[in-house]
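Kindly go through the entry underneath: sequence plus fold tokens. Please state briefly how this chain folds according to its tokens.
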Amino acid sequence: RVHGDSISSAKMLATRSAVIKEVSESSFMYINMELARYLLDQGAEGMQKLDHVGFTLGQKLVERLTRERGRFSDTLEVIKFLCKEFWIYLFRKQVDKLQTNHRGVYVLQDYNFRWLSNLSPNNTSVTAKEAALNYLIFPCAIIRGVLSNLGIACVVQADVQTSPSCAFNIKLKI
């Protein structure tokens, strides 16, 4: 065997193992929807579990993203990090619009929230808006976990006017 061949084989193996670690976005969205559907079918207890999973995931993801970064200087810097770097990492795009009243309330608007793009209610008793709000429990909890891990206690709620557009309302606990 020629030395160059073993180097290219090693590179190919390293590349293949790096690719294996990634999950396609469509697979993740499907798993996310099925997990949410499964837990939401369990009622209030399932909603609490979904919230807990999202909160924990948000804490862990932000630890990974901020490992090499210095401390944030203020709340607005944290919110900007959430809207740009974290949103790109998780949702493959920046938040479309950030608004604040400068009194502890922030509104993050995403006009094409990918996690709602393939959503359809599973029964006729639930409207599309109600179904979307149920599925947004998970990303709300992720956002709350991110902010909690960065030292910001808050309440996060979602609002849907027309799917897949949504807004995340963040109210700081003071």
In short: The helical segments are 3-20, 25-40, 44-66, 75-91, 128-135, 137-149. The longest strand covers residues 166-172.
